[in-house]
Amino acid sequence: MNKMIRTGLLILLAVSMLLTTATAGEVIISEREKASRLADKAMEEKYGITLLTQEYFNRNTADEGNGRFVVQYWGIEDWGFVLGNYKVVVDNGKVTEITWSHDGEDTSGGMNADAWGNEQILEMLLMNQESGETSQFDEKIQEINRKHGITDFSELFEVPEDERIWDEIGYKNVREQAAVSVEEMTRIAMEGIRVSFELTDEQAANLVDANTPIEEAREDGEEDEDTEYYMFHGAPCYMANIMLAENDQAKIPGQLRYKEKDGYYWVYINVVTGVVEEIFYIAGIGGNG
To answer: What are phi and psi of 149, to 5 degrees?
Structure first.
């Protein structure tokens, strides 16, 4: 082989190896996930709603095209009216609109108010931590719902259905599309959390894989399909369940036992491309984990 050609091939091989190594260490965060994080920060800046006090909300990030995302947070189940619906519009990397269905209403008076903001959510979290149940404020929420004639919570707000579910393609077909190993997707998930949630090196080092094997033998001897695989916003995904638990504080009455960013992270990773499609976080101390 011509010496010049051989030298050229060796150079190309070396460059290819460098590119492969760099790609393996990188994590690609989707525009949807970036929009969700911008919305979270806007929620905290305007309304004081932090990652912790998002405990009792659903969240959906809708891609409307041309770089525009609409992120909505709404109270879970019977709490839809009292917690309301927050809407954040992110347009090409900038928050252009943020509103709450209870804007302008009086939230003072603790749980006697008809609209509950950050103050009441913190109170709920503390009550739940101390007693381990939600009945003490569930009753108050039902009273407020009756007062306002709220019976059908699905009609309260125009929010899209939660798309964190598998569709007719099924679990197995999603899994069969996987071009990335579970071990690599777990690594991607942890790195995605570190980048997207701005963890310290110490926090990142303490992330652990909380996924448990789902495939268990049924009575007919067949194995259940792996329910960690989903269709998510049209993309075939693996859901990694990652936990951060650094808090070693003793329980102090009247004080939340919580260390910032401790909790559970559900990371949806595209099984074909390895892209981090979106990450959902819950502290897990409010009886909703």
So the answer is: 65, 30
Question: From CA 253, how far away is CA 255, in angstroms rounded?
Answer: 6
Q: What are phi and psi of 99, to 5 degrees?
A: -140, 160
**Residue 168, number of CB atoms within 10 A of its CB:** 6
**Helix 135-147 vs helix 118-131: crossing angle, to nearest 10:** 140
Domain spans of the chain, in order of start: 27-162, 166-289
Short-list 214, 210, 201, CA closest to 263:
210
Average pLDDT of the chain to the nearest whole number: 80
Q: pLDDT for 53-106, tens place per residue?
A: 898 899 999 999 999 999 999 998 888 999 999 999 999 999 999 999 999 999
Cβ atoms 34, 61 nearer than 8 A: no
Residue type for position 78: D
Q: Residue 258, Cα to own-chain centre: how many angstroms?
A: 18
Burial class (CB in 10 A: 0-12, 13-18, 19+), 40: buried
Per residue in 40-53, pLDDT (tens digit) is: 999 999 999 999 88
**How distant, in Å, are the alpha carbons of 116, 117, 270, 275 from that of 108?**
9, 9, 44, 43
Cβ atoms of residues 126 and 254 within 8 Å = yes
Q: Which of 53, 84, 52, 86 has the alpha carbon at shortest distance from 70?
A: 86
Report the sign of the C-alpha dihedral through residues 15, 16, 21, 25, in that order. Answer: positive
